[in-house]
Amino acid sequence: MTFAVQLLLMASFVAAGAVTYYFGRRAEEAHVSTVARQALVRASARLTGITSVAAAQHEVLMRALQANDGKTPLPEVLNALAPSFVARPTLAYVGIARAENGEYAMLERRTAGATLRHYIVRPDGHREIHVYEPDAAGRMHFRRTLPWNGYDPRTRPFYTDALAANRPVWTDSYLFRDNENQPATLGATLAAPWRDASGRLVGVTDVDFDTHSLSVFMQELQRDLPGRIFVMESRRDGTFRAVAHSDYVSRGDLRAEDFQREPAVPIVAEWLRRTATTPHQLDELLHFQLKDEDYVAGVDRLRGEGAPPWTVAIVMPRAAVAADLEFQLKLSWITLGLLAVAAVFGVRLITRSLASPLARLTGEVASLEPSLARDRPASEQGPEEIVRLARAFNDLAARVRTRQAELAAARETAEENATRLRRSNRALRQIAQAIAGRDHTEFWRESVRACAEALDVSRAAIWFREPGSPELRLLAMWDSATQKFIDNVVIDTEAHPEYWLALQRDGRIATHDAACDARTARLHREWLAHLPHVALFDSAIRVQGEIAGVFSFHHLQPGRSWTHEDEILVLGAADLVALELERSGRRALEASEAARAQRLARQHRALSRAAFSPELRGGQLAGAFRELCLVSTEALDVVRASVWLVRPGENRLWLMNEHDLVRGGHTQGAQIELAQIAGYWSALATGRRVAAADALHDPRTVELVAGRLQPRGVAALLDAGIFSRGELVGVVCFEHASGTRTWEPEEEIFASAIADLAALALEASARQLAEDEMERSRRRLQLLIDGTPLAAIDWNRQLRIIGWNPAAERLFGRPRDEVLGLDGFWMVAEHDRARLSGAWRELLAGRAYFVTRFENCRADGATVICDWHNTLLRDVDGEIMGVTSLVEDVTDRVRAEEQIRQLNANLEARVTARTAELAAANDKLKELDRLKSEFLATMSHELRTPLNSIIGFTGILKEGMAGPVNDEQRKQLALVYGSARHLLSLINDLLDLSRIEAGRLQLEAKEFPAGAVLRECVESLAPMVRLKALECRVDDRAPGLVLRSDRKRFLQIVMNLANNAVKFTERGSVVITLERADDGALLRVTDTGPGIDAEAQARLFRAFSQLDGSARRHHEGTGLGLYLCRKLAHLLGGEIGVESEVGRGSSFWVRLPLVAPFAGRTDNSIPPWS
């Protein structure tokens, strides 16, 4: 019996465990499926909206091409589409390829907006690339030409795929090779054949989609999911490949293979390949193991017209998704196990202790069994064994009841979650169905009411924010208590920075008490203070990465906490609202593009009509201006269009023509003084256009208000200047009467085009006047040719005479009628005819002017020598029509020149003989000069030795070192000492000069501070300066300046110049200035001496040159100092000069390079001076 009871208890626990496991697993499967389905629905809806941008752009492109059956140049079509392309950041390229010749134009996205490339194919087959870039207003302008890079769109996959499918088709993804905006990302192309009205293939269009935005969106979505999400592409070879992934967003080294390195990608790709023929349902999941961990995967194919062949896939670790349910299931198993162990242990204990009174216990047990199903515990009275058994049964009953309650609560929670999910799905379906409607107000209201009911909240609202505006405007709010909608509420986000910054950072705000949350406390005080308790959940509505609004949910009862299912619904609803905002924006943009295309077509027709009018081409100003005004009023839909001109020499505007659309007539003749509208005229000259949306208050048109705008009821004005040769000569004016008007960019371009046509009319009129004047000039020229004394002959290309003036008749002795049509060989001597043929070929080869001399034959047999001045005649296209020749008889001049040549030959022979004599004398002088230099070098060296002895011994005697001397002796010794020093200086100068001229002066390049050398020089001259009571100082304007040159020679130059300055200055100062000049140093020695006149300056730097005799008497010198300074300055790579004014002083300057030219040479000797 005991064994049977034990078996029965074990079986009961096993059954309970099996039931618990079964229902737990089912709840887990339902939870995993729900999470995956919610994520896929949200992702698919958003991605469908993102990818539909490419289809929308393609529709706009096709409508633009079909507007005039493809006759508009491709750059103009893309220029019109540039604003819509820039507004869609998910697009990388938009292109058009022609099938006939491979011409291709494309818009490509760049960091700073977009550029336009046009692959030109010229009629001769030459190809090149024209690059257009936008201006500040976004309009494309030609910038440069690039060589062709070998690109032919007809060989590209997008072109061949579109032709093969004969419909719009998405190509396989590819890695962007050259895209500044996203250098490392995948893209796909939506391509379609372009056919004309007859069905003939014109070309192929392509719109390239950038998958980077998909990866960004999936990265944002992954924050709320325990797994990874990516997009799989069905390729044409039957394989599947990942094109966007939440883990790969912004990496500069990204490659196409990186998307495939996610371990789950090949598993999902293989699953999709095997089941490619069967459509996947949202509740179908793939279970697989990866690295000993269980995973689940779900997929959903993108649907909708124009959607690419892509599938959204989500991969989640099973344990992370079902963590809560798994914990409850494990807790149930632990409880059942403990109960089973307790039961087995109790039965065995009872078996051992109660074997003898088994019958009695059996009866008692039978009486205790009903207590398991009751709340009342069994009686614990009686024998010890019965009491223990009762206690065990009471404990078991309590545990069973507790577990039953937990299971019931878990089942209730699961049912409640399932109910919420069903409500959420129903709400999302209602929002998705409302998107298909056209009434925005109904969509907003349906969305907030459905979400309020699904979440069981008090209020649900959608707020909208205009781009760049800080205000949130209420679109719709549903109040569950009153069952009414609320609107017309505005919140300033700048007044609630905590709320707005948190929403921008996190994308959502979820709080159970808005009054206590720092993010929403200020918002609660201002807007919700009358509500004591508010649980708030707000989600940002993002459109193209920017917050365009907020989806807000309020619950007014305490105790509300937001669950994961609530979060899924709120975020999904926000994504659907964002999709509707994108769709409505796209519809508005498409409507705007369509209206813009109509305006452009109307303006194009008007321009074509005006441009090809015979009045404009013929320069008939009155008719041309009348036509321009007429077509402009229709094209721009204005009440009046007029043309005004400034007549030459006048300062007033004249009305040439005005068309009034209301009155239906044309007027002219009005005048406006330019002085009265100077500000307006200046604005027009500077900006070329004046587009005044409110002309009565625009500062540019204020001068026109009282006299012209107000009396005529003009509210908006569009004026474009007429420019001729860069000068403003007039204006075309377009007036709008019914309220203010914002002028579109294409309308401003049209106005400028009308102004250009007016300028062309002026040029055509001027050209007609010029042609008339040319005809009069031709007639005057003919009279001049007929009266000139030179023979004038006109030739055609075959060297036949077509013009012959009276002077030609006199020169050659033949009348005009006789020579017309003859070739020119008859008038040239026979030996010159071959040279005539060569000269003619050279003329026809393009030489514009040619002078030659021939021996010509007259009709009477005589010969004359003539100079022929030949000039090419060209037509308006530059083609050679013939030659005109002016012929001059130079027979007498040639004979005189021959006599002169004979005289010149005799004179040249005499000059040659005399030149030879002079050359011999010059060689002898050079030899004497060399001997002189060698003599000076030798004698100077020989004289220095005794002089040094004289100076040394004289100094010893003068100082009394050889014995006492009296004052007279000391004075005489000082004279000897000074004369010896002067003689030594002279010998040194002569020695240096002889070394320079003999090429034996050694130069040594070292770095030294130039300022230190100047100060050393001043110190050396200090005794002489003190003796003359002068001021001598250094003005170092370049401290730290270092020269790489010969320090000794630099000091020698400074000493010579400074010594001369002190010597010739009787009072005042001597200033030695050093400054940096360009890439060198500039030294100046300035004194306040007597100055030097211009005649003396010219010979100042010559050898042995001094001032006049009186100066020599007062100042000793040989005239070698400045000459030697000039030589040394040249050797150091510099130059020397003087600036002086008589009575004001002199300034000697030396300019030297920072590095001497001989620095770095191994041989620093100089070449002999020449």
Please supply descriptive tags for the structure shown above.
single chain; 1170 residues; alpha+beta; Beta-Lactamase; 6 domains; 9-stranded antiparallel beta sheet; 7-stranded antiparallel beta sheet; 40 strands; extended; disordered C terminus
In words, what does this structure look like?
The protein is an alpha+beta fold. β20 and β21 (546-555) form a beta hairpin. It contains 29 helices and 40 strands. The model is unreliable at 249-254, 354-361, 368-374, 1109-1113 and 1165-1170 (pLDDT under 50). Strands 1, 2, 3, 4, 5, 6, 7, 8 and 9 form a nine-stranded antiparallel β-sheet that branches. It has six domains: 2-22 and 342-403, no CATH class; 52-212, PAS domain (Beta-Lactamase); 416-589, 2-Layer Sandwich (Beta-Lactamase), CATH 3.30.450; 615-771, GAF domain (Beta-Lactamase), CATH 3.30.450; 788-889, Beta-Lactamase (2-Layer Sandwich), CATH 3.30.450; 1000-1153, 2-Layer Sandwich (Heat Shock Protein 90), CATH 3.30.565.10.
Annotate the secondary structure layout.
Elements: H1 2-66, H2 74-86, E1 91-98, E2 104-110, E3 113-121, E4 127-134, E5 140-147, H3 157-165, E6 169-170, E7 174-175, E8 186-195, E9 201-210, H4 212-222, E10 228-234, E11 240-245, H5 264-274, E12 285-289, E13 294-301, E14 310-317, H6 318-321, H7 323-353, H8 358-368, H9 384-435, H10 440-455, E15 459-464, E16 471-479, E17 484-486, E18 490-492, H11 497-506, E19 508-511, H12 521-527, E20 535-543, E21 546-555, H13 564-611, H14 614-617, H15 621-636, E22 640-646, E23 652-660, E24 665-667, E25 671-673, H16 678-687, E26 689-692, H17 702-712, E27 716-724, E28 727-736, H18 745-787, E29 791-796, E30 801-804, H19 806-812, H20 816-819, H21 833-844, E31 849-857, E32 863-874, E33 880-889, H22 891-958, H23 967-998, E34 1006-1009, H24 1010-1020, H25 1022-1028, E35 1031-1036, E36 1042-1045, H26 1047-1064, E37 1069-1077, E38 1080-1087, H27 1094-1098, H28 1109-1114, H29 1121-1131, E39 1135-1141, E40 1145-1153
Parallel strand pairs: 35-37
Antiparallel strand pairs: 1-2, 1-9, 2-3, 3-4, 4-5, 6-8, 7-8, 8-9, 10-11, 10-14, 12-13, 13-14, 15-16, 15-21, 16-17, 16-18, 19-20, 20-21, 22-23, 22-28, 23-24, 23-25, 26-27, 27-28, 29-30, 29-33, 31-32, 32-33, 34-36, 37-38, 38-40, 39-40
Helix pairs in contact: 1-2, 1-4, 1-7, 1-9, 1-13, 7-9, 8-9, 9-10, 9-13, 10-13, 13-15, 13-18, 15-18, 22-23, 24-26, 26-29
